[in-house]
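Researcher: Before we compare anything, I want clean individual predictions. No alignment, no superposition, just each chain on its own. First chain goes here; please echo the sequence and then give the structure tokens.
Model: Echoing the first chain and its structure:
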Amino acid sequence: MISFNDYNFEGKRALIRVDFNVPLNGDFQITDDTRIRAAIPTIQSILKRGGSVVLMSHLGRPKAQENEFSIKHIVNHVSEKVGTEVTFAGDCISNGAFKITKDLGAGKVVLLDNLRYHSEEKAGDVDFAKKLSAHGDVYVNDAFGTAHREHASTATIAQFFPNDKMFGLLLGGELESIDRVLGASKKPMTAIMGGAKVSSKIDIIHQLLDRVDNLIIGGGMAYTFAKAQGGQVGSSLVEDDKLDLALSLIEEAKAKNVQLLLPSDSVNGDAFSNDANTSETSVKEIADGWMGLDIGDNTIEEYAKVIEDSAMILWNGPMGVFEMSKFEKGTKSVAHAIAKATEKGAYSLIGGGDSVAAINKFDLVDQVSYVSTGGGALLEYLEGKVLPGVKAIRD
């Protein structure tokens, strides 16, 4: 496999699959540019080494060619971040687009319009991928966020660059970071799993039970465990069809000598609202009409101690409804405990949209080891699945 750092980009057009699927407000302004910033080192490295760059991405989920999903809305912001003018091509496979990229001079940057304006992109269509490949002399996949998709621009296209395909600095760094955690010899290793449902994390939990020393559970899924153990959880979010599964995971953790930490207490609201009345009770004694929305103080203290004593940490999913200030304490405390552990020498990987949003909200990005840009891709990689976008480069 070709190394990005060893490749000679001089005089070459680098066709880069980036993940610029960023959130826009009603005025088409970017509300979080994390994904754009993450791709800048790859782009600037190629430009410095005498190459030119053609960027391709999707944005949102267009059904036709709706204006709201046009990449044109982010061109100025990309120009600002790259530090050079970016030319916008009004399509990705039109004659006009090919005219712009055909004789691209060194140091130039072009941004193609939304790949998903064409249904062939999601279908992984070979002819569409071949057309896209004409925009570059070398293919660089730097979109970890879409590496789990077998789309034309993420997987199919690689076959047209048999000797000139590679990971960019972002995607390469993502894989290195995750592999470092999964293959960790440093102990103890702690995984923190949050989020709404046990069912969405079941495959990862199974994988992690073979690797970790401690598995911390928080978020909505904790109430399924509490009810499975005979607890009263009021109107908390529960997967009633997963109670047996929760019990079997508790037994599996015991059998594998993994310390499974479940909340002992809960901060509850009488409505799913920041204006709700709150109470703090045992996680198994939540009154009818109340719902668990965060972990309680005893749980925070227990979790923080385990996290701060860890050498490797993986965090995926919040401890509660951290978007609401009344129910943010658990997630905030876990984030600070991870930062403290990192300061003491632990390696910490933060992944998944909500965990990343929390780390950003509490301004701790620079105090953890690595923040992943991948949501679904990270989860599937942790589950042990082969990612099409990764396989296409490694094959």
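Researcher: Okay. Second chain, same rules.
Model: Second chain and its structure:
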Amino acid sequence: MKEQLALISLQLIGFLPLRLARFLGCALGFVMKIIAAKPYRVAKLNIAACLTELDEESIQALACQRMLHLGQTLFETPGLWRQSPVWLASKILSVEGEALIQEALDSDSGTVVLVPHQGNWEVLGLWLADRTQTTSLYQPPKMRNLENMIKSARQSTGAKLVPTNTRGVAALIKALKQGETTAILPDQQPATNGGSFAPLFGIQTLTMTLPHNLLKRSTCRVVFGCALREAGGWRLHFIDPAQQIYSTDQAASLEAMNSGIEAIAALAPEQYQWEYKRFRARPEGSPAIYPNGI
């Protein structure tokens, strides 16, 4: 019953005009800050650990801004899932680095677009799938009733979704060798057997090795991208990674990938997903970043 009510609520939110959805999202974010909800508390811990140059007042201000953007993401995404590619195109205000991404997509070597949790990553995924053949890993949501809603939205522009297992990875490699594109969220904590520790914001962080493994088995190109929220829509931003990301040395490649994540986050720190407990896994002997109860 709870899942059904949640699904109905999301479907209703999906009919809201973008401006109203964002207004309500800001209201939700303000409430999360006022009551010191868990996302706000985690965001403060992450910001303090990663942006050590900030004082306490600046940390609180950035965490507050982040809650406003988190609320907007929650309220604007259901609308994205039901809107057409034409509507989405009308909301893309600019594309910075457009020549870079177009050159990559036009090549025959395949493209890996690394999309950190910045702004609204669903926007970028839908935009890419409307322009090129994409194959992406798909993890079904915990709320099973949401699966059809999300899958139909992502596949509506021609994207191919594959499972998050060895069969899915094999499909990614095949797609890249055929000159296609895949989008990967590189700042999720992987399973222990799918990651290795590398510096991120100066913190040794369990980092996914999937992009590095794809690069070893194909000649694909890597581009970082994000969709930053602005009044009336989104601004897409694409940047090249450090050349070391192509290194056969895993440690060098992972460090370059995390440097790219930092660069994307720096474009609009208030839009980065600081509320995610990214540093749950710690190297042996390292102190925990999140206290018990958070």
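Researcher: What stands out in the second chain?
Model: The mean pLDDT is 94. Additionally, The two ends are 28 Å apart (CA to CA).
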